[in-house]
Design a protein that fits this description.
This protein is an alpha/beta fold. Helix content is 56%, strand content 16%. It contains 9 helices and 5 strands; from the N terminus they run H-H-H-H-H-H-E-E-E-H-E-H-E-H. The protein has a 5-stranded mixed β-sheet. The longest helix has 18 residues, at 15-32. The protein is elongated, with a radius of gyration of 22 Å.
Length: 187
Amino acid sequence: MAENSLFAVLLRSRWWISFAICAAVVLVSLAVFPKDISPFAALGAFPFFIVGCMAFYKQMNGPSPARLLALQELAAQQSWADFSAQLQAAWQAEGYAVERLNLPGADMTLVRNGQSCVVGARRWKAAAHGQEPLRELLGARAKLQADQAIYVALQPLSESSAAWARQNEIIVLDAKGVALLLSKAPR
């Protein structure tokens, strides 16, 4: 599904929005079309109902927006030892084998199903993220022959750094992604 399609946007929105659109389509169908056709026109609301159910399920099983915000604030206040321990616990809860590293630009490796990933997270609180730590992470990925690289950053990357990361296939875990990951860590 395209990232900015109507249904993709509705899946990311609050669940009740899809149900409101569904109800509006049904009401308009019943009001505008003749009685013998209106039930069939109302079936056009069915995809919105399905998307609403999917969004409801996803949102009820996931953390609330307030919890995500609290986790972002907690991550910004933590020391490196606490933050890295939480990252490690969250990735282990996701089924990864986590190994701590002491390489320039690389802090951890993640391994699952034969796929390896190198993680650069030490600069997670930096106000500005340039290309230097991304280059170091890319070098560590090559040295370790990892399949992927993840850069953890609570603050957004500059446009040029974000473009460079995309070009070099570095996954950038932003504040929301960090909060979602940390929400999976055992308490």
